[in-house]
Amino acid sequence: MKTQTPAASTQYLSFMLAGEEYALGILQVKEIIEYDTVTRVPGTPSWVRGVFNLRGSVVPVVDLAVKLGMAPSTLSRWSCIVVVEVKLGGERVVLGLLADAIGQVMELEPSAVMPPPSFGTPVPVDYLLGMGRLGTGRKFVLLLDIDKVLSSQEVLAARTLRAPVDASSSTS
Questions:
Q1: First vs last Cα of the chain: how many Å apart?
Q2: How far does CA 163 lie from the centroid of its chain?
């Protein structure tokens, strides 16, 4: 009988979006910041909430709910921006994702990650890495493939955003 070496578990950051729990691979998450001043930029796609200043860099903020085909996120005291790196060609690009609330860092063994179902999820199946089974219960968390959610063309469009000249006085 051949013994297999178990593959390493993977850590994910969970967050809430429109009442559902989603998660991203922790290695793509750079930091989590409180939702504060985001400057709207005219002419941007509906899923771009605006831009904010992150230590001198202009970072686009994506309303992930809109990008996934849901109603725009409603801001609350738990709203935050998950700063992530996504792939654009061979380059890494920093973007902010608007989340309703942050959940937890969870560790999932490969056996706890199921393939995404072919139907019935609130997001397109090709945006999912799979579904993570939490504990021994029946609860699942949707594992997003953020590189696929934000296609290269869209990331490039968001990356070229610049805050308007009067950005320091505009808030959202």
A1: 62
A2: 22
Can you tell me the distance from the alpha carbon of 84 to that of 101, in angstroms, rounded to the nearest whole number?
Answer: 16
* Amino acid sitting at position 59: V
pTM of the predicted protein model: 0.81
Backbone angles phi, psi at 136, to 5 degrees: -100, 0
Contact 35, 64 (CB under 8 A): no
Please state, for a pLDDT cut of 90, what percent of the chain lies above it: 51
Contact 26, 105 (CB under 8 A): yes
Chain-centre distance for alpha carbon 86: 10
- Taken in order 123, 24, 89, 152, is the CA torsion positive or negative? positive
Model pLDDT for residues 4-16, shown as the tens digit of each residue: 445 688 999 999 9
Q: What is the pLDDT of residue 100?
A: 96
- Alpha carbon 113 to its chain centroid, in Å, reads 18
What tokens does 162 get?
């610049």
What tokens does 156 get? Answer: 């490039």
